[in-house]
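Reopening this one. Same input as before:
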Amino acid sequence: MRQIGKTLIPAIAATLLLGACDGLGDGNRPESIEIAQGEDGILEVTECTRPQLSIRAFFSDGSSGDFSTRANWRSTDESVVRIGDGDIAIPGRDTFVPRGQLIAVAPGTASVYANLIGLEDRLDIVVNELGEISIDPAESTTATGSTRLINTVGEIDGEEVILSGLTQWMFEDPEGDASAEDIATIENVAVGNLTNGLLTGVGEGEVVASGVLDFCDRASSATTVRVAEPQAIELRREYEGSTQLVSGTTEFMYPFALFENGDEQDLEGQVIFSSSDDEIVAVGAFGTAPSLILAGIAGGPAEVTATFGADEPEDGEDIDLSTGITSAPVPVTVVDATLTSLDITPDTPTVMFGDTLEFVATGTFDSGAFTQPITRSVGWRTDDSSVAQFGITFLTANRFAPVLDEAGQSIVTATYTLEDDSVVEATETVTIEPSVDEDEDESSDETGLNPDQI
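Same output, byte for byte:
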């Protein structure tokens, strides 16, 4: 990107004030500014996306700073590209497009200019057409009183990308006296690092929904949203086919709503778990993982159930589970067993910097009597934390991630401590590959789908 150092208007006092801001330049005069994105003065983006542009100011003493929010921005053709300058309201929201955020309105070419107290830089924008926009799931049934994720999805550079953060949701009014809001609502919410659509089932019925992308004349294909009462609630074990669990280990119980039309819905986090004996099998022990059970003392079987849709209790009263739908009981027998060997997979894996790798630990107990996954019950470490590390939370402790962007290897060790304080270990060597060229990586930030840019 070129730096245009020509001063368009005299602004000595303003430049001195700017130079002193944020400790940059110590009052020195900014000599030039540069739009950081693009290559050779050109940036390719996809229709309907909103990448964030940034400006760096370069001072006479060699210092520099980010002044993106202080620059003034303009576009040469707002039918192709608009750019936030503090004056563009986002449809349906009480907020404005941030300064410097690009709005790719329609396929074509245009230029944007940034001006900072008389210094100016230009970036030429090529807007490529966005492919077909769809809704995922294409059709679904949602339990009354429950929520599920629903997203607009488009194809960008050959990959499906969630576009919900750029979407306004629309409903067609159903037949009869009911309104769409009597059946379902959709709002955008932050889930992890992404913005997703959250569908809430309000009352039984069907309604047609679609997503309209902000600022560009594009909409998704329509989808039928059904809301119904479940026929049944079903619990599915993480370790299929097993009825026992080693004392001190954990297992997920996945709750699903089953509907008359054959559809099903994942109800993770929306049911109440119960155990017939909390000393043998404890439920609700993990706030961030409500579907995770913990094997306590040996015995059983203890029966685990899940209840959906129970009425909210009055203040000071216990919830009455009989007012909801309860799953068939799942029997769990807890056994005392001694780990005799440990195996971790994948074997001799390779991972690229920027990606992660999920390890699985499987224990063999009582000299080969049986095996069980014990991924969450072992400790994970690498031989050099400056090269690679594991996740720091209970549910990510097995997630391996390189922290050094260069070719190399990392030795992974999983450990399980027995009652006599002896340790059973297993190791695996991971090959780390460096990331692709930085210019290619930067292109991912230009889709406008970074959560900070939506």
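So the earlier flakiness isn't reproducible anymore. For the record, The longest strand covers residues 423-433.
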